[in-house]
Amino acid sequence: MRFEPNRTRERMKARLRRAELARRRPPNFTARRAVLGLMLTAACLSVVGAAFHRQVLEHEFLRDEGEKRFLREREIAARRGMVTDRNGEPLAISTSMSTIWADPQLLAGRREALPALAAALELPPADLGARLDAYVEQGRRFMYLRRRVEPNSADAVRQVTDGYRLAGVGTDTEYRRFYPGGEMFGQVVGFTNVDDVGQEGVELVFEDRLRADPGRRRVIQDGRGRVVEEVEQIKPPAHGEDVTLSLDRRLQFLAYRELKRAVAEHRAKSGTAVLLDVTTGEVLAMVNQPAFNPNAARSEPVEHRRNRALTDVFEPGSTMKPLVVATALEAGIINARTPVNTAPGVLQVGRNRVRDIRNYGLLNTTSVITKSSNVGVVKIAHSMDRAVLWQSYGRLGFGRITGVEFPGERTGFLPHYEGWSRFEHATLAFGYGLNVTSLQLAQAYAVIANDGVRLPVSLQRRDALPAGERVFSADTARAVRAMMETVVSDKGTARRAKIPGYRVGGKTGTAKKATGRGYAEGKYQSVFAGMAPISQPRFVMVVMVDEPRGESYYGGIVAAPTFAKVMQAALRLYNVAPDDPQAELLLAGLKREAKR
């Protein structure tokens, strides 16, 4: 072995250094190192223990706490019930739309995106900014940006939120009400507000049935408010119940068109028309002028929303005369041929006078109706006790609501007989001193058409015939119908109410319009009430035109043509057989010619 003195010296020096260090080291150094080792070991065990505790023992709790930060309850939209006509045609439907909402506190931090967001929402940027500031100041965490927007608007908002990565802006599904019938059904169907609550018309009457009950769901959403997971359904949505009306869309359109034409032609203030099914008491058409479109924003005058057939009253004028005659016939006081002397065309009643437009001389009961003699009908009315006429008017439905269940329906005014003077007894016979609605007058005429039985009227389709109340005997009703048929003859006042192939009966009325200061000079309300076919009436219709300002204002000229056009269409649509003997003879002749 070879000896290396240099390496040996180095080893000796290292040993001496270690000995010197050991001599200088504190006596407790080893203990300190042991303590430090223990502390590090304890720290490692603590970390491992905490991880085990959180990952294993507290896993469910921590997961729930994390989900609470992003777990939200959201509404499940429910559809409001549909309103349809008697044949199932939609009159009010709900379509799904997008509603844009935001968290103001989050959106306020991204003001650079507001101009683009306002453009997508089709809102003025200043208005959006002012609303946002107001919500932020109030500390609120939710605001609607726009409700029920079109799909293209919702897509534009999504592009903005994705482009700017906006947090706290989202969309929900809501339903918007749409009315396919527009103006034709506006005053009957009504409309809902922005929260889908009925405000007027059928929407208000049947709110409890039509109203939807939204459901609730629990979802997980991300930091930008978007739903990333459906967790559970808390409450299922309950859609509203559908309501079927008695109205016929086809007849409603025809009545609306013809009434609008009449009001425009005679430059009238307003008008209304009602068509009833005699056999069931159902309202088949109910239209008014002026009208409004329930789909448009509410900017029209409030009076345009009124269903005038139920809310506006008027003095019916001479349309009451057949009902007076029916009352006297039922009491056995007169018959169809009883002579009535109307000469000299003027009748003194106390200090007042009742006049005819000319001296008709000696008439009978039928011709009193044909000529619409005021003097003749007053003499008939005075032959009865006041209480008898008052009770008859009440049984016909005057002075009380029809029970059609419509908001704002008026009872009209029928004064009690104990307060009648002799002159009031007279004026009530030719339609002054009381007021009625168009529907009340139609219901009263339906009594004559239905062989003396009054049925409750309805705006809902009926599947069963309701119980009626007998007002007149069938013989009385038939006798009065025959008298009213003469009114539509060449000798009567309503020749323009004729319908080819059908026997038609009715009565005209032209009443001066009452104001707060008495009867207005030159202002009239033109009325025609009629039925067809006379042999077995199926329909009754009342047309009233308020303040015609054309060349003529008589009911037989202003209102009767509208009746004829709508009634003719109704008879044909419902396949009612013609009952005019002349038409039958003509048809038979045409058939014989065809065979030859």
Q: How would you sum up this structure, described in words?
A:
With 596 residues, this protein is an alpha+beta fold. Helices cover 40% and strands 21% of the residues. It has 22 helices and 21 strands. Strands 2, 3, 4, 5 and 10 form a 5-stranded mixed β-sheet that branches. A 5-stranded antiparallel β-sheet has the order 12-11-21-20-19, sandwiched between helices. Helix 5 packs antiparallel against helix 7 (151-164). The radius of gyration is 42 Å and the shape is rod-shaped.
Structural topology:
Blueprint: H1 5-24, H2 29-57, H3 59-70, E1 71-76, E2 83-84, E3 90-102, H4 104-107, H5 114-121, H6 125-137, E4 143-149, H7 151-164, E5 169-178, H8 186-189, E6 191-192, E7 198-200, H9 201-205, H10 207-210, E8 215-221, E9 227-235, E10 243-244, H11 249-265, E11 270-277, E12 283-289, H12 308-311, H13 321-330, E13 339-341, E14 346-349, E15 352-355, E16 362-364, H14 365-371, H15 374-382, H16 386-396, H17 422-427, H18 438-449, E17 453-454, E18 469-470, H19 474-487, E19 505-515, E20 518-532, E21 539-546, H20 555-558, H21 560-573, H22 581-595
Parallel strand pairs: 2-10
Antiparallel strand pairs: 1-8, 2-3, 3-4, 3-5, 6-7, 8-9, 11-12, 11-21, 13-16, 14-15, 17-18, 19-20, 20-21
Helix pairs in contact: 5-7, 11-21, 13-16, 13-19, 14-19
